[in-house]
Specification:
Helix content is 38%, strand content 15%. It is of the alpha/beta class. It is globular. The structure holds adenosine-5'-diphosphate and 1,3-bisphosphoglyceric acid (X15). Its EC number is 2.7.2.3.
Length: 398
């Protein structure tokens, strides 16, 4: 795998370099357009700065959220361009489309050392299409913009998408420093985790992570499940979960996983149940056997937090992905805080993976340096630990 250092060594002054970044940053739930955590933008700064300072014409591209293959103002990267400019200390030009007339004109007008951010890649159906020809056609358009390709979007390397998988096949390609570092740390954790090895999972992308649980089960000593995904497991155990997040079609899979796990999957024993998804909602701690039918669980309860913390305390390796509750709303942040604090205290190595989990560490004011590694990719790091080939990494290795 060639790296950014190799490219810089070859010289990039006056050359056009396409940087795939993961600028899928979280926004303040109450204030649309306001970025709540810019960790992912900061993580790609060393790459952008190095290229800019070496005189490259830098074309940055990213996805944001999950728009449906067409422009959708809710998912514009415009606020991210502004923030990136502030972080870089130099203007970031923003193109109002990805490969359209505006992008073409702005790429053509780039001068040495300038940085341009294209509009959301996922405004184009070719980015995420399962049809190789459709993806390829979009990658052809992107390839016209640049002489070189650098992938620094670790959070997206598990996606077989045009900008991640097809584009590097069309341009000389290099791994950015962030991708190199993330892969190095995760390789160590997946190949030789010191035991006991505890994995903590939460968040809301339930079906994404059920497959991961299956693959991780044989490798871990304990798998703690909180967040939105625990309710499908609780349902599988026969509990009623009210209006909580539930993937009915996965209940049977959860039953099988629980049977296979032989006690190694640990579920909450209580939750904070609220009348609605809001910071002002009426809420109370409920035993999992007594979740009211008209309420939804938005955090694990205090007894669960203690239970999880004691399982974490003896671990030598902890991997954590996915908040334990809706930590963005103060009444539902205690579970995530408690679990995160327990992880900071272990006598061993910890990895935090995922945009929202990393954001939780920072927005809850926890000491980032108390974690072994904070990864910018949740799904990506999980799939790496699972032992899957990551399309973005495979494409860089070719
Ligand atoms: N009980 C819950 N119900 C609904 N959403 C939840 C619940 N617990 C956590 N979440 C939400 O899950 C989101 C993070 O999920 P996810 O994207 O899977 O994590 P990550 O980005 O760390 O991989 C957060 O925005 C959080 O509010
Ligand atoms: O936020 C991301 O993943 P993560 O929440 O698993 O860390 C990445 O930007 C990938 O986004 P996607 O899961 O919509 O492909």
């Amino acid at each position: 795998m060639k790296t950014l250092d190799d490219l810089l060594g070859e010289g990039v002054s006056g050359r056009r370099v396409f940087v795939r970044a993961d600028l899928n940053v979280p926004f303040d739930k109450g204030n649309p357009g306001v970025i709540s955590d810019d960790g992912r933008a900061r993580a790609v700064l060393p790459t952008l700065t190095a290229l800019r300072d070496a005189g490259a014409r830098v074309i940055v591209a990213s996805h944001l959220g999950r728009p449906k293959g067409a422009p959708d103002p809710k998912f514009t990267l415009a606020p991210v361009a502004t923030r990136l400019g502030e972080l870089l200390g130099s203007d970031v030009i923003f193109a109002n489309d990805t490969v359209g007339a505006d992008a073409q004109a702005k790429v053509a007008a780039l001068t040495d050392g300038q940085v341009l951010l294209l509009e959301n890649l996922r405004f184009n159906e070719g980015e995420t299409s399962k049809d190789e020809a459709v993806r390829g056609a979009f990658a052809d358009e992107l390839a016209k913009f640049a002489d070189f390709y650098v992938d620094d979007a670790f959070g997206a390397v598990h996606r077989k998408h045009a900008s991640v998988y097809d584009l590097p096949a069309r341009l000389p390609h290099y791994a950015g420093g962030l991708v190199v570092k993330e892969v190095e740390v995760l390789r160590k954790v997946s190949e030789t985790p010191e035991k006991p090895y505890v994995v903590v999972l939460g968040g809301s992308k339930v079906s994404d992570k059920l497959a991961v649980i299956q693959a991780l089960l044989p490798k871990v000593d304990k798998l703690l499940v909180g967040g939105g995904m625990c309710f499908t497991f609780l349902k599988a155990q026969g509990y009623e979960v009210g209006k909580s997040l539930l993937e009915t079609e996965m209940v049977e899979t959860c039953q099988q996983l629980l049977a296979e796990a032989d006690g190694r999957i640990v579920l909450p024993v209580d939750v904070v149940a609220a009348t609605e998804f809001s910071a002002d909602a009426e809420h109370a701690v409920s035993d999992i056997a007594e979740i009211p039918a008209d309420r939804l669980g938005l955090d694990i309860g205090p007894r669960s937090t203690e239970l999880f913390a004691s399982a974490i305390a003896g671990a030598r390796t902890v991997f954590w992905n996915g908040p334990m509750g809706v930590f963005e709303l103060a009444p539902f942040a205690a579970g995530t805080r408690g679990v995160a604090e327990a992880i900071t205290k272990i006598d061993g190595f910890s990895v935090v993976g995922g945009g929202d989990s990393a954001a939780a560490v920072r927005t809850l004011g926890l000491d980032e340096s108390a974690f072994g590694h904070i990864s910018t990719g949740g799904g990506a790091s999980l799939e790496y630990l699972e032992g899957k080939t990551l399309p973005g990494v495979a494409a860089l290795e070719k």
